[in-house]
Each structure stands twice: as structure tokens, then as C-alpha cells.
Amino acid sequence: MKYVLAIDQGTTSTRAILFDRNGHLLQIAQREVACLFPKPDWVEVDALAIWVSVTDVINEVLIKSNISINDIATVGLTNQRETTVVWSKKTGMPVYNAIVWQSRQSIDICNNLSKYQEVIQQKTGLLINPYFSASKVRFILDATKNGQQKAENGELLFGTIDSWIIYKMTMGKVHATDVTNASRTLLFNINTLKWDEELCSLFNIPMKMLPTVCPSAHDYGSLSYLKSHVHITGVLGDQQAALFGQTCFEKGESKNTYGTGCFLLLNTGDKLVFSKKGLLTTIAWQIGDKVTYALEGSVFIGGAVVQWLRDEMHLIKSSDDSESVALESPSGGVYVVPAFAGLGTPYWDDKVQGAVFGLTRSTNRSQFVRASLESIAYQCKDVVEVMQEETKIPLKLLKVDGGATKNRFLMQFQSDLLQTEIRLPRCLETTALGVAYMAGLQCGFFKSLDNIKKIHEYQAVYTPYVDKKEVDRLYEGWKKAIKATRIFK
Ligand code: ADP
Hints:
The chain has a domain at 3-238: ATPase, nucleotide binding domain (Nucleotidyltransferase, domain 5), CATH 3.30.420.40. The chain has helices at 47-65, 107-112, 117-124, 133-143, 147-152, 161-169, 179-182, 197-202, 238-245, 304-311, 321-326, 365-391, 408-418, 430-443, 449-455, 468-487, and strands at 3-9, 13-19, 25-32, 35-36, 44-45, 72-79, 84-88, 98-99, 156-160, 176-178, 188-189, 194-195, 212-214, 232-237, 254-258, 262-269, 280-287, 290-299, 335-337, 355-357, 397-401, 421-425, 458-462. It has 16 helices and 23 strands. By secondary structure, it is α+β, with helices and mostly antiparallel strands. Strands 17-18-16-15-21-22-23 form a 7-stranded mixed beta sheet, with helices on both faces. A 5-stranded mixed beta sheet has the order 3-2-1-6-14, with helices on both faces. A 3-stranded antiparallel beta sheet has the order 4-5-8. Helix 9 packs across helix 14 (430-443) and helix 12 crosses helix 13 (408-418). The chain binds adenosine-5'-diphosphate. Adenosine-5'-diphosphate binds next to helix 10 and helix 11.
């Protein structure tokens, strides 16, 4: 059999992608999934719509490729992390919309537990924040009639999106999740690799609801809903899948995804590294008994600053224009701090708002656009700096993906700023590719990690050409801008 089928269930869309033995993308099908915004700061999605989108894209990719499901060697599944579904064991129907990772609706639940921050970080590697699943489960149980009672009776099941899709694909035979998804719930102990009784009782979540946790490379059951014997043999949260898809298999290797926000992950090998500066400790993957860990830093506004330039400021017509407009004039000493949603790593400052510094009478559109693009790179440099400080692992090279990597100005500036080589892979669907690699490894479609490294290809390499002194001077300016921004609250 010639293909691996990867399902990538993201926040705004679901994709099905067929890969061949060389890791080449052969066919893709995509469906948008509408997010719902019942109140300001609340983000939900219909869990059934997610499941329908998965079945749609699988059908479409098979039809477009003129093959049947039985021509597939194996299926890999990757997903938006933390998003939470609770459904009835009896009917398989959700009892509430899925609550999306971005949603802040469970903030009060988190605020009430803030005194447990230290123990929570030591057990889960995370921060108490509505972003992660536990408070969302609590919210749903409270919002559902007799929710707590039903959960205690074993009538309700919880899962992140991977779990939900596996449950549906196997027609309710398998209620499972992989370690990477479990590690984002605030309920999973990343030291013992088990659901944690104390954490579950803090959130008053009955352990009966929780899925079985399995390695990332594992047989999760077959696609019974299609009466097919094809199995799901790889499951990973999206950022971990991208790390794997960028072949960051060794300790010290890292990738950065430049999407709406930016997510930088560093493989820390078999070592758990706990951060004092706002990095998250997470599981990168588990193959057999071997667990690999990662540190993760996030920038809330990455490519989104380009959308802002286009849709709100009307300074550019299309995202692609940002590159040519930025190159129209040299840097004008302007700094844009796009803290529209607070600041992520290493600041985790909810209250701060955006700001602009260094304007003069001659500041023009080009310099403003340029400074906005530069702000993406500066924020990523902030993450790299704390990662290096806390791990003592020097950054040798950065592998990149995501929509904003199209921007050559941004990539070159990032390379200059980090004084590091930047590599862009041939296949930009690294999330799907990563889980295809994982599923393929498990079923023998790909022979080994070495074999994957050999077939993995790159399309562009950026190397620094501005000298370090100049870069240090620019970065000093950025740090001043951040400091000033945080005063204005
Ligand atoms: P997500 O998965 O978060 O939806 P994508 O990886 O699809 O994100 O990337 C979308 C982001 O990339 C958008 O925020 C968009 O503004 C940005 N983007 C797209 N093209 C460019 C470009 N040429 N230059 C800079 N940013 C871009």
C-alpha cells in the first residue's frame, strides 16, 4: 500500500492529506469549521461539525485521488490541542459545544485555584490558565444539567479533539488519547505519565471520564465507521506533530511555527526541564517506552499583526504585500509592540496593550509595516533567549513553518536577529507530515527515524548577514520598547 493518510484537525479547518513513501504530499482536502462566539472572550465549536468535517475531507481526498480507503496503509491524527469535548457514553452525542483552547470562559475557575500554581507546574509543566482543558471540563459539567452526577455515574466521557475523533472513527470502541494531548489538560502528571488523582480532585473531575493514555505511536483501532480495517497508528497534538514533521528528533533541535501566533518548541530529550520564565514543559512524543520532552514558548500575535496591518490599518492590500512594502525603505528606528492580546512567553502579561515607539516626522508606511514584521521576529527572539538561558542549549539552527514563512524579509531578519541558520522544509504541511511520519513508523511504512531524515527535504535556507553588533543594538531597542509598553497599563 502506497499511502499514509494524515488528518489535521485545526482551529479553523480540518484537512486530510495523502503522503507517499518519500513523504511527498500527493493530495489534500480541506473544510472550514466555524467557530462560535457566544460571548466576548468565549470561543466554542460544534463538536459534531468537527466530526462531519473529518468524514468529509477523508471522502474528498480519496475521491480526488481515485483510491479507496483500503489503499491506505495507515492513518495519523493530529489536532488543535486543549480544546475540550464532553459527550454521553450512551448516545455518543456531545453534551455541550467543544470549548476551544483560546476561550477564556473558565477564567474564574482558574482564579479560584491560583494558590496551587506551584504544585500544578511541578506535576504538569503548565500554568494555571483557562487555555488548558481542566477548567473547561469543569465549566461544561457545571453548565450541564446534573453534569457532575452523570460524570460520577460514568455516563459522560471527556476527550480532547483527538480522543473525540478516535471515539467516532472506532464507533465508540476506543476512548483513548496520546500522551502529548494528555499533557495539555492540566490533569496529567508528566513525571509519572498518569492521570493525577490530586489534580482531578482539585478540579473535581471524576477520573472515570478520562480517556486511556497511549504512546503517540500506537494502534488506536480501525476506521470501523467506514467498515474498514485500516488502523490509526499515530496521534500527536499539532505543535508536537510539527516538531516531529521538522525531524527535530534529537535533543537541542527546535522548530518555530509562524501562524496566527508563533509556537517555538525545543526538544529537550529524555529530560524534563522546568521553567521559571514562562516556558511550558510538555511531552514531545512517546515511541514505545521512550518519552521525549520539549519546552514550548508562545507568541500570541505573530502573523496576526500582518492581518491587522491589512484589515484594520489598511496599510497593505494583501499579506504578501507586507514584504515588498517593508523593503521600500530602510529601518526607521520604529518599534511596534503588537501586544493586542497581552504578551506570551516570557512575560505572560494579560493586561498589557499594544504600543508604537520611535515615530518621527519622516516615519512612513513602509517603516511602520517593516517594524510590524520585525516585531514577530523580536518576540520569537525573546522566546529563544529564555530557552537558551534555562536549558544552556545553544541554538544551532531553527526549522520553520507556518503561513508567515512565505515572507522572505521576515525570515532573513529572523536569521540576522538570532545569528542562526533558518531552514524551510519542502513540505510546509509539517503538522500533517509529522503525524504521517509517526503513524508510518509504527506500522513499518517508514523504516526508521534515520530513514525519515534521509527523505526529508528543504526548499530554502537563510543565513545571517547583518553582524552581531548591529543586531544587539536593534534588540536593545526592542527590550526598551517592551519595558515601556508594560508600564502603560
Ligand atoms: P494558522 O494555522 O494559525 O491559521 P497559518 O500557518 O495558516 O496560520 O498562517 C496564517 C498567518 O500567516 C496569518 O496570520 C497571515 O497574516 C500570515 N501570513 C500569510 N502570508 C504572509 C506573508 N506573505 N507575510 C507575512 N505573514 C503572512
